Amino acid sequence: MTRAQPAGDVDYAKIGVGYSKLRQPDPRIAAMIRARLGAARTVLNVGAGAGSYEPLDRHVIAIEPAATMRAQRPAHLSPAIDAVAEKLPLDDASVDASMAILTVHQWKDRAAGLRELLRVTRGAIVLMTFDPATLHVWWLDHYVSEMHAADRGRLPGLDELAQRLSEGGRRVEVVPVPIPRDCTDGFTEAYFARPERFLEPAVTGAQSVWEFVGRGVRERFVGQLGEDLRSGAWDAKFGAYRAMETMVGALRLVVSVGEEETK
Asked: Please, are residues 48 and 64 in contact by the beta-carbon 8 Å criterion?
């Protein structure tokens, strides 16, 4: 399938080249996702990207519309199908469980994509997303409030996701995800204790939100942060973050399970 425009709100042909190196699944977060998938043997991964967090002990059907991301999938994972969340090429109730990891905010029609997950999934649906109400709780907002403002405009509220995923009597649970200090998945909050990493162009290049604030804002942030790190101003104000083993920020799992699974 050839698309003239990106399937979501970000052009991964432009920014997705470094994802497989910088967005490695963190094993502690992966364990939380696996636990919520339960005993599922067939798992659908929507917005699968380069394959982060796909369980290796299950049969995974990966859906990914961006060719740049599909090309980065390692050889031990199954090839991804070129399709979109809003129109899944699967029969009704055809998979045991579904997962969608840091992708739902990029879908063009979120309601349609969630309906499709409900249609094809017999058991658990596991979303990993960010809570837009708590994006501002850590030090990055001090430097670049424009970034969190942009994300708040993209991210669905947790109440919206819970309401849509509770259809058919499903029970929905929202689970905070502690982010380890040495988190290997390079989303923005992963570097809460390692501010120097934001000075690396590849790091911010693998975080889609920077596409929504503009080059000038990114350059201003890097310049100010670099100066504060050199002068010691960052450590004087925010140095306590370096000692934190984990941070509970905005990262959440939204888990929808059927009535049979709750018994």
From this structure: yes
Q: Is the dihedral of CA 230, 231, 232, 236 positive or negative?
A: negative
Residue 223: inside a domain, yes or no? yes
Q: What are phi and psi of 70, to 5 degrees?
A: -60, -35
Poorest-pLDDT segment among 4-18, 33-47, 138-152, 210-224:
4-18
User: 0.85 cut: is pTM over it?
Assistant: yes
Structural domain span for residue 65: 12-262
Report the CATH number that the domain containing residue 159 is assigned in CATH: 3.40.50.150
Tell me which amino acid residue 77 is.
L
CA 180 distance to own-chain centroid: 16
Structurally, the chain folds into a number of domains equal to 1
User: What local confidence, expressed as pLDDT, does residue 81 receive?
Assistant: 97
Break the chain down into helix, strand, coil percent, rounded to 5.
45, 20, 35
